[in-house]
Design goal:
CATH topology: Rossmann fold
CATH class: Alpha Beta
Number of strands: 7
Strand order of the largest sheet: 3-4-5
Low-confidence stretches: 178-188, 190-206
Largest sheet: 3 strands, parallel
Order of helices and strands: HEEHEHHEHEHHEE
Number of helices: 7
Shape: globular
Helix content: 25-40%
Mean pLDDT: 83
Length: 206
């Protein structure tokens, strides 16, 4: 619940990413069958709950029977981080009568946007500790740590110990995109007396 949940669900279940942002109305469902270990496969069901559910009366129905609640925010958007307090309160109220305790997890999405980070890592860790939350830094765009995070949470929920080989089977290769600067934002060329033209490129992780 929060900023980037749909992108995270799509990245994990379909290994796709769309730069076009869509807002979830109500709830959307995703399924992913994965090999948790060499001997065990599991099916994960993800419920992407939209922001409008915060003020609606359906949140308790969405959370009924859930094992884990993921609280997602955008590291480049401080407002999304501030909204976590309201979500924590709403989820706590909606699940207070459930017999099984709900595991709560804090996800810092868009961790690849370090150059425009608005929420410091120390702030993230402090918030997680103060609210007794597990926490991860992930990127739906690059895929960094997404599969590993879901694998880790599934293993904890099922009481399954993962070997090094189990973890390595879901490791993601993060690719850097090479972007040429636009003419209006191109880096200025240093003054030179020669007629040799200097060509510049900027390497960005997005």
């Amino acid at each position: 619940m929060g900023k980037g949940t749909t992108a995270l669900c799509s990245r994990y279940t379909e290994d796709t990413f769309s730069p076009v942002h869509t807002y979830t109305s109500g709830v959307e469902f995703y399924l992913k069958r994965v090999r948790l270990t060499q001997e065990r496969s599991v099916t994960l069901q993800l419920w992407d709950v939209g922001g409008t559910s915060l003020s609606g009366g359906m949140l308790n129905n969405y959370l009924y029977g859930a094992h884990i609640a993921l609280f997602v925010y955008d590291v480049s958007n401080y407002t999304s981080f501030e909204s976590l307090e309201a979500w924590l309160e709403a989820v706590g109220e909606a699940t207070r009568h459930q017999s099984r305790p709900l595991r709560r997890v804090l996800l810092a999405n868009k961790s690849d946007l370090e150059h425009i980070r608005a929420v410091r890592v120390e702030k993230h860790k402090s918030f997680a500790a103060d609210n007794d939350l597990m926490s991860f830094l992930v990127s739906a765009q690059s895929g960094e740590n997404v599969a590993q995070m879901f694998q880790h949470l599934a293993a904890i929920t099922l009481g399954q110990r993962l070997t090094r080989a189990d973890v390595e089977q879901v490791s993601t290769v993060v690719r850097a995109q090479i972007a040429k600067p636009r003419p209006e934002t191109a880096l200025p060329r240093p003054p030179t007396a020669s007629k040799v033209r200097i060509k510049s490129e900027v390497c960005c992780l997005q």
